[in-house]
Amino acid sequence: MRVLVDTSVWIDFFNGYPSPEAETLAQLIEDEVELLTCGVIVAEFMQGIRESEALGKLEFHFRDMDWLSPEEPKTYLSAAELYRQLRFRGITIRSTIDCLIAVLAQEHGAFILAKDRDIRLIVASGLLDLREFPLLNHQ
User: Fold this and answer.
1) What separation in angstroms does the CA of 84 have from each of 71, 73, 80, 102, 123?
2) For the chain, which residues score pLDDT lower than 70?
3) pTM of the full predicted structure?
4) Distance (Å, rounded) from C-alpha 97 to C-alpha 115?
5) What is the Cα–Cα distance from 77 to 61, expressed in whole angstroms?
6) Sign of the CA dihedral 36, 42, 44, 48?
7) pLDDT value of residue 48
8) What is the per-residue pLDDT across 52-72, written as a single tens digit (0 to 9) for each?
9) For residue 119, what are the CA distances in angstroms to 7, 55, 59, 64?
10) In this structure, which of 21, 78, 91, 108 has its CB flanked by the most CB atoms within 10 Å?
11) Looking at domain 2-132, what is its CATH homologous superfamily?
């Protein structure tokens, strides 16, 4: 099983915020589930780190994970098309980055673990063959 963990979940997890998503991530780590990341998730997360010491530790953590790479230009075109189709259906996604993350998860057959309104809207739209990882105690 492979799980792409979104920025919002990493933020809760590293800040010790007890969200259902962060608790699920802690269990996935304990169970040694294959966790995935990608460049935009790491960039979003790392830009908010204030302490240099923490930055180094977190860089090491992310370097050790499997990184999903876009299939250029296909992935980017698919993300743009997803955004367009959602907008056509009256669904407003605040960032194309969420469309890119969702398309990456689909291309690599990964579940997605997110605490993000836009990711949930994308999954619920049915436009992608994408599954959210079920939360602990919320299945």
Assistant:
1) 19, 17, 6, 14, 15
2) 138-139
3) 0.92
4) 15
5) 30
6) positive
7) 85
8) 777 777 888 898 899 999 998
9) 11, 26, 25, 25
10) 21
11) 5'-nuclease (3.40.50.1010)
